[in-house]
Amino acid sequence: MKIRDLLGFSIRNLWRRKLRTFLTILGVIIGAASIVIMLSLGIALNQSYEEQISQMGSLNTITVYRSYNYDPSVKDSDQVIIDDAAIAAFEAIPGVELASPLVELQLKMVSGKYTTYLSVRGIKPQMLIAQDLKVEAGRLLDETDELSLLIGGGVKYTFYNPNDRSGGMGGGMYGMKNYGDGSIFESPVDFLNDTLKVSYDMNFGEKRQPGQVTGKKVKPYTVKAVGVMKEGQGEHDYFSYMAIDQAKKLLKEKEKYDASLIPAGTGHTPKKKEEGYNTAYVQVMDMEKVKEVQDQVKAMGYEAYSLMEYLDTMQKTAAGIQAVLGGIGAVSLLVAALGITNTMIMSIYERTKEIGVMKVIGASLPDIKKMFLAEAAMIGFFGGLLGLGVSFLGSHLLNYVSKNGSIFGGMPGSKMSVIPIWLYLLSITFTTLVGIVSGYLPAIKAMRLSVLKALRTE
After folding, report:
1. Each residue of 13-36: b (16+ CB within 10 Å) or e?
2. What average pLDDT does this structure show over 195-199?
3. Looking at residues 15-41, what average pLDDT do you find?
4. Which of 10, 15, 124, 378 could cross-link 100 (Cys pair, CB 3.0–4.6 Å)?
C-alpha cells in the first residue's frame, strides 16, 4: 500500500467517527500542553537563577584566596602564597584565559565640594575586558592608562559635602536615593569632566578635628576617570578599578603613611606586611570548565570560589522541581495514551468486517498494521500540534501575569514560563511516538484477526 493511500484511509477512518476522534485528540492536547507548560516553568526557573547569579559577577571567574595555616609548627616559608609565580601557574592551567592578582586599598576622593571614601581595586586591565564589564559612559581601562580609574556604577551615590551640616556622614549624604517623591537622582560629580583628586590620607578634603592623630601632610594625586560602569553588576558597583602596577605603588605609599600615624613610644608596631597577594582572579574560557579549573587551583593549596558553585546548587534544585512538574504533566499524557489505545480497540470491533474484506481482496498483514498505526500516530501528532498552540498561549498568559516580578522569587521582568524551540519539536515528536506505541497492540490485534470470523461479523 502506498503512503498516500495509507494516509488517505487513515484520515477517512478518523473522520467517520469525528466526535470520538475529537475527544481522543483533546486528551492528547491536554496531556501535551500540561507537560510542556510544566517543563517550561522549570526552564524559566533555571534561567531566572542564571540571571540572578550573573548579576553578582562573571560566571567564568574564579576568585582565589591564599590559604592560611595556623599550625605553629608550619614555617612562614612553607605557607602557600599568591605571588607572580602563582599567577603564571594559574594561567598555565588548560582552559584558563587570564589570571590577575587583586590589590585592594582605601582612598579618599575629592571633587569640588564633594568627597567620598573610595574602595579601589588594582587589577590587570585585560581582566576587566575578559569579565565583560559594561560601561554607561567612557570606556574600560587599558594598559596605557596612567593614574586612571574605572568608576563603579554605585560610587556616585556615596559622595557627601562635609561642610553641609544637614546630616549624613560628616555632612549631607548625597548618595541617598529618594524614591518617595519620584525625584531622579543626579550625580553631584561628573566623573569624566570634573577634576578628581585622591589621597591615602583619610582626612583629605575635611577639617581636622582637635586631638585627631594625623601624619605628615601628603600631596594628593590628580586622577582621570576613563569610564563609569553600569549599575547592577554586583560587587563591581561600589568598587573602582586601577591598573595593578599603579595600585601597588599607591598601596606601598599608603602603608608607609599609615605606619607613620602610630605615635612613637606607645609600644605598638606596624603589622608585618604579608608576602604576595591576598586575592587573585582566574578567568576561564568556557563556563563548563570552571569547576574543573577550580578543583585544580584547590589542589595547588589555595582557597577557590566561583559563582558556578552557587549556580550548580540552584540548578540541582531547579532540576528536582522540573522533574516533579514534568511528572505531573506526564500523568495527563499517560491518560491520553490510554485513551488512544481504547479508541483504536473500539475501532477494531466496529470495523471487523471491513478488516476481513481488506484481507480477502489482497491487503497484506503489514498493511493492516500500518493503517492502524498511522491512525494512532495522527491522533498523537495533531494532539501534540494543537497542544503546542495551547502551551504557547498559556506561556504568554503566565508571563503576562508575572511581568512585574517572578512568582518564583526571581528578578522583576524574569519570565515565569520559557518554551525553547527544542521543546516544541520534542513535544510533537513525543506525542506522535506515544500515539504509535498506544496503537501498537490494537494494530497487532487487527493484523491477527481471523478472516472467517471477520466476515461472519454483522
Report:
1. bbeebeebbeebbebbbbbbbbbb
2. 93
3. 87
4. 124
